[in-house]
Amino acid sequence: MRNHTRAGVVLATTLLAAAGMAAPASADESAVGARAAGPSCTSLSNGSFCVAITDGGHTVRLVYGKTGGSAVTVKFGYRKGNTTHLSNAYTVKKGDTKVYEFKNQQLGCSTIYGVLAAEGQGDFETPGVHNTGC
């Protein structure tokens, strides 16, 4: 494993723990019995971006940890099929970890992709997670 890949895995693991997205006790159950899916993360040049489905399959939780570069304005979102849902814009600076949740979503038995729309840089997407709460 290359050093930058290892660093990305360590960062993603740290972000997930800080944001309450650590892997549940089993693939489908957390300690309190609520179904969850993910997390699924992608490594970016200046950080890491992750998505998980929580709250019995009704909340999309997104986490962006920025480890370098200048401040960036982003919108958090998720894609379900051909439809993308986006948040308002937020500024994220080096060293910040930003958590955003879309609550009370009707996700169905879908695969969900986290979307990070970075102003002037385009959109970044996580690998998909399948909603197990259906």
List keywords for this structure.
five-stranded antiparallel β-sheet, disordered N terminus, 12% helix, 9 strands, mainly beta, single chain, 134 residues
What does this 3D model show about the protein?
By secondary structure, this protein is mainly β. The chain is 12% helix and 47% strand. The protein has one helix and nine strands, in the order αβββββββββ. The strands form two sheets. Strands 4, 5, 7, 8 and 9 form a five-stranded antiparallel β-sheet that branches. It has a four-stranded antiparallel β-sheet with strand order 1-2-3-6, with helices on one face. The radius of gyration is 14 Å and the shape is elongated. The termini are far apart. The N terminus is likely disordered.
What's the quick description here?
With 134 residues, the protein is mostly beta strands. The protein is 12% helix and 47% strand.
